[in-house]
Inverse folding.
């Protein structure tokens, strides 16, 4: 009996073939463990989950197969790239004047004072030139008139006038 005889095989050629097959399976198993680890690092942010996926792949073939079934469908780089593309598209839309009402998500233009859908006030007009003012501005950029902080009383008076105008048309 040869010293490296596995499974009691006496034929040296057959013994060599069995040893090579076993070596191939061990190398394949180690390669699958490494592949699982590398793939999990590219798809999963949490290091604990990456470790669990790698530990699961220690079970020959079955662990890697289970990981392949439950792994996230996208790489982290692809997710980040998609989010950046969405942000860039939103920035391009904002430059084109595409805005949404913060209350009802209806498309409004940047110079609208009220949303045509929900009738909520979006901006106040300048008391001098009448152009729409951002609520954070202290000076009108069009006519350089100082913007007073709007108190609750003038808003109520304006609402009453809008409601009074709206009532006769109903």
């Amino acid at each position: 009996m040869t010293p490296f005889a596995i499974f009691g095989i006496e034929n040296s050629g057959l013994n060599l073939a069995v040893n090579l097959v076993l070596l191939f399976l061990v190398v394949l198993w180690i390669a699958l463990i490494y592949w699982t680890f590398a793939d999990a690092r590219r798809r999963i942010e949490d290091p604990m989950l990456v470790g669990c996926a790698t530990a699961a792949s220690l079970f020959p073939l079955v662990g890697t197969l289970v990981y392949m079934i439950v792994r996230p469908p996208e790489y982290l780089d692809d997710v980040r790239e998609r989010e950046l593309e969405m942000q860039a598209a939103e920035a391009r839309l904002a430059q084109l004047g595409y805005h949404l009402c913060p209350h009802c998500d209806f498309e409004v233009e940047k110079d609208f004072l009220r949303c045509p859908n929900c009738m909520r006030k979006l901006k106040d007009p300048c008391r001098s030139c009448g152009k729409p003012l951002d609520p954070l501005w202290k000076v009108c950029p069009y006519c350089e008139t100082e913007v007073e902080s709007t108190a609750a009383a003038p808003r109520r008076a304006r609402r009453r006038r809008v409601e009074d105008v709206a009532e006769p048309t109903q």
